[in-house]
Model the fold of this input.
Amino acid sequence: MTASIPDRATAVPVVALGQTLLVSVQGELYDTLAEQLQHDITLRVADSEVSGVIIDISGVEIVDSYLGRVLAEIAEGARLMAARTVLAGMRPDVAITLVELGLTLPGLITALDVECALELLARPSAPNGSGLPERAA
Done:
């Protein structure tokens, strides 16, 4: 089933790909739109059998502390409902900004692109809760 959130011309599309939601953020994500996205994703995870959420930010040039917090909160909300969240497509400038702001984005797994994110979600969840395989000692 492929569907996007209806009735919001300015909303960020949330597309279902099997048990994964794909969210593609393009351009600047204003505060009210970020809050609406958080609400929409939480409802979609709660109302379906979603096991993973991919947030593609390859079209985002600027991430401020508010947006970083919203992304972390989306991941935490999804985790509480047994879904893992992967942040895909982060630009180098965005990564540098997040480091400079001291944001760690807890609960978010990162991937270079959507394809890598899908591969990460296809792996079984690790006991450490990170979604990444445990390292051998």
User: Anything to note?
Assistant: Confidence is low (pLDDT under 50) at residues 1-9, 130-137. The first strand starts at residue 14 and ends at 17. Helices lie at 31-47, 65-80, 92-101, 114-122.
